[in-house]
Design brief:
134 residues; two-stranded antiparallel sheet; mainly beta
């Protein structure tokens, strides 16, 4: 068992969920703009700072199960977005050797990222990453 603290920069696409087969329109400059009847994704830029509890179910420590909390700082997204959000990541990591690690993580968004109270947009996402352990 252990604790991991990290930081990463992430750029990802976002779009609104569909309700009754139609995209929920907040405002054309919020998250998406219609292009020929389809939703065009905007890019969301964040710095993520997760604090995770790590469990090693195998004796060789190659497989790691992780859970915890994650603070996110939204960068350059304008006045319609909040500056921070919180999430709850669940992850599984596998080390190929002593240094190379692959991580599959699902983050449950816990807070709304828009300042508009009428619309609820959270940050649920799946992230696959590779890294080097120090």
């Amino acid at each position: 068992m252990g604790v991991a603290l990290g930081a990463s920069y992430l750029v990802q696409g976002i779009k609104m969920s569909k309700k009754n087969g139609e995209y929920t329109q907040v405002n054309n400059d919020y998250i998406w703009t219609p292009v020929r009847g389809k939703a065009q994704e905007a890019k969301l830029k964040t710095i993520r700072i997760p604090l995770l509890i790590c469990l090693h179910p195998l004796e060789n420590d190659r497989l790691t199960l992780k859970a915890g909390c994650q603070a996110e700082i939204l960068i350059g997204m304008g006045d319609k977005y909040k500056k921070t959000s919180l999430g709850a990541p669940l992850a599984i990591a596998y080390c190929i050797d002593d240094r190379l690690q692959f991580d599959l993580r699902y983050n449950f968004g816990l807070t709304d990222i828009l300042k508009d109270e009428a619309t609820n947009v959270t940050r649920d996402c799946v992230v696959l990453s590779a890294g080097i352990r120090f």
